[in-house]
Amino acid sequence: MDLHELQQIARRERERRRRIRIHCCTSLGCHASNAIEIKRRLEEAVIAAGLEGEIEVAGVGCMGFCGHGPMVEIDPENILYEYVSPDDAPSIVASIHGGACTAGRGDKNHPFFARQYPIVRKNGGKIDPERIEEYIAAGGYRSLYRAINEMTPAEVIDEITRSGLRGRGGAGYPTGLKWATVAKSRGDRRFVVCNGDEGDPGAFMDRSVLESDPHLVLEGMSIAAYAVGADQGYVYVRGEYPLAIERLQKAINQAKKHSLLGSQIFDSALDFRVDIRVGAGAFVCGEETALIASIEGGRGQPRPRPPYPAESGLWGKPTLINNVETFANIASIIERGSAWYSGIGTESSRGTKVFALTGKICNTGLVEVPMGMTLREIVEGLGGGAPDGGTVKAVQTGGPSGGCIPASLFDTPVDYESLAKVGSIMGSGGMVVMDEATNMVELAKFYMEFCMDESCGKCIPCRVGTVQIYRLLEKITAGEATPADVDQLRALCQLVRDTSLCGLGQSAPNPVISTLKYFPEEYDALIKP
Amino acid sequence: METSSVSPHMRDTSASINDNRLKILEATMKRNQYRPDALIEVLHKAQELFGFLSPTLLISVARSLHLPPSRVYGVATFYHFFSLAPQGEHTCTICLGTACYVRGANNLMVAAEGAIGVSAGKTTADGTFSLASARCLGACGIAPAVIVDGVVAGNVTPRDLSARLVALLASPSKDESRT
Question: Does residue B73 sit at the A interface (CB-CB below 8 Å)?
């Protein structure tokens, strides 16, 4: 494979295309709402109308507006249909030549779409994730070529460092610094690992990226492999995501077939292979040392750091671990440059972030916005606020490790530091919206039950502390607790936070601490004097 | 109620040596060069083939991968995905992730428990139905979500789910069509 071949594939793909493409979302949300049948009926309708020469139907990745699915889009007319049913298919095809359409029209100018800045999700809803040709025609693998042929590994790392990209898995560690550490570490072999163990309930952007644009992640990993000198990569995907696993495997096979993975990529010295490791349902495996233990075939239990995986990771070798969304940013940074990327977002948090808007919100789905947008803009502007005339009371970011932010603080800009200041975290990007009907003490109990179940049992503060916190919360919700119990709850939260071994335990008390801080009246109402 | 009496349709692992499933499992281990780090992959395959991981099966995997049985048992019990008990002919998994929880997944669980007659994590005595909960299916966009016999459904109401499960319970067993 060389640049010429890459361009040829892109050209052939463009020539193959019909003038009009009907995009049919086939990601999980729409998939579960009959999208495959819709796609089949659309294909039938195109043939029945004798328009095969002019119109093609393509199954594409996630369009983001999952709450209004199944979604169908006419390209290049830019017409969107929502809540489509298979019976709408003939009229959608007829509408292209002016016929009336029975499907509901979606609004592409709605803030939900208009306020987004897609980088990670640039191909979502546009290309067929199961065809590498479409990814290449959209400019794919050009950045990998550029990195290998026009840049040294050190220049690639420099570019990523200057872009200001920080880890999108939650902690926000500077990506360039991590790459530089791995590249400098001694070892006869290095590994690149993509963390797709998206365990935070309420977050599904990594699933969506893997389902919608798997090659974007693979290209990011290959560029990383070139930069740090790795020859083997692993993508660790949750077992709960069968569709993502299937599409990623297909993408790996196609990339291998086109010599974009394997030996001597682009006729260079770069050898890079990627294998999938399927998780088996353990939240703690999102923690990097636990994830390594799991890839090695063991119980997913974390170990103390240092040494960090960058120095001693998989089988004791230097290992670069980044999350799916982080890798999905890489190709665009190489293509458009660090100056462009660092111009987006805020001083300390550059670029965009994908958020999953869920819960009591009108517009459920995925949004990618520049860092620094306020919570209010996201929840009320893009999300449309609470449905059925309800009032938004709080938003929970960062899953079981994050905190609840009350509506009074919705002018907080979304960046790593600001969210930490109000007692939450960025996390992987889940935003669960609560309205007045949600009881915050019950919610804290819900999260604590989660952490209690998911504690791996290795360190005592987490294993025992989460159980005791849960019991205290049970006592409170049963109306049997005294003020002394609440004092003990606070003390215990502090202890578990300070003394647990890994991030799971250290952050497990966050939902309790933040609800105690912002919604004390809900606790007080349940306390016996 | 939830005794472990094994009904005839439950796929058990006391199959003969010539069982095709064992050959497939063997091939999976061979493809991974019997490496101990392939343990989780192998257990995934074993569960896919046999429905659950019996002690006999775990010991045979341990032998093939040259691992102590304690290590294999430790891994099998650590991860939620692996089941050491037979599963029912039908399964219903209700997502209890946050988005589903906020949108009333608890009511779905109550409805399902009522319809099937067992609590989450259990299988009916006759082995027809297993009820389970999931942490998050990543289907938050269509919350609350459930999986019935492997098919994901979204925006589910307790009444729909209950009707669906009662209908499945009443439908004749598909035993003969199973492999």
Answer: no
